[in-house]
Amino acid sequence: MTKVAIVTGGTRGIGEAISLALKEMGCTVAANYAGNEEKARAFTGRTGIEAFRWDVGDHQACLDGCAAVAEKLGPVDIVVNNAGITRDGVLAKMSFDDWNEVMRINLGGCFNMAKATFGGMRERGWGRIVNIGSINGQAGQYGQVNYAAAKSGIHGFTKALAQEGARYGITVNAIAPGYIDTDMVAAVPAQVLEKIVAKIPVGRLGHAQEIARGVAFLCSEDAGFVTGSTLSINGGQHMY
Ligand code: NDP
């Protein structure tokens, strides 16, 4: 499958595993990142996948970044909106900046990336967009009104855009990961994490590769009849 794929936040954590899974599928992959040059350089050294720096929360930067990828690697067929941040805190302590930054990057990034690539997919009659949501967007989470709202928004965005893309051969799906062993989860205090793991029926954190395999399936030809869906990969922690 020689398709060109962009994975936002594709240089580490879940994104790195997704970049690698798409490369293994035969895609030419561009991994986007925000600014951690050291991790991006190490990633390219390990994988041979080129890294492209831009802020997905910046509309113009997404248009320019996607144009640069297309010029270098070819028209973009697949977008995985994986870049995400947390700025946790209970409402009383959450600043407007904490709210706005999470909405701007986590949800705004999906809009910006779709605006930059959807038209081309439509013209060519084929496309795959996979948005990384979260169990906390499905179920809510104490201290995360910003993150839960943005991730919940991603699930709505996915279903709406899926309806627009269907007749043009573009599928739009979401994956809602549970707790996955990455830097983001390493930031959770150990006592809190212990309580979280106790609530996961499978009895452990997930691995980034387990999310990546789901993304790879949704990006494949075999998944052409799957659109507007959310695949929960969470060890049974939240079922509905
Ligand atoms: P990490 O914090 O490990 O990595 C985040 C990646 O996103 C990095 O590559 C980072 O770039 C990039 N990034 C952050 N902000 C921006 C931005 N403004 N523009 C471009 N890239 C950006 O995250 P995870 O791998 O843990 O999470 C990946 C996704 O999965 C996120 O959307 C997260 O919300 C979601 N998720 C994660 C869960 C988990 O348990 N880990 C659970 C549920 C959902 P750089 O390296 O330059 O900083």
Automatic annotation (TrEMBL):
GO terms for biological process: monocarboxylic acid metabolic process; poly-hydroxybutyrate biosynthetic process. SMART domains: PKS_KR. The keyword Oxidoreductase applies. GO terms for cellular component: cytoplasm. It comes from the Bacteria. Pfam families: adh_short_C2 (PF13561). Gene3D superfamilies: NAD(P)-binding Rossmann-like Domain (3.40.50.720). Residues 3-178 form the Ketoreductase domain. GO terms for molecular function: acetoacetyl-CoA reductase activity. InterPro entries: Acetoacetyl-CoA_reductase, KR_dom, NAD(P)-bd_dom_sf, Sc_DH/Rdtase_CS, SDR, SDR_fam. Keywords: Oxidoreductase. Coiled coil: none annotated. Belongs to the short-chain dehydrogenases/reductases (SDR) family. This is Acetoacetyl-CoA reductase. It comes from Sphingobium quisquiliarum P25. The lineage of its organism: Bacteria, Pseudomonadati, Pseudomonadota, Alphaproteobacteria, Sphingomonadales.
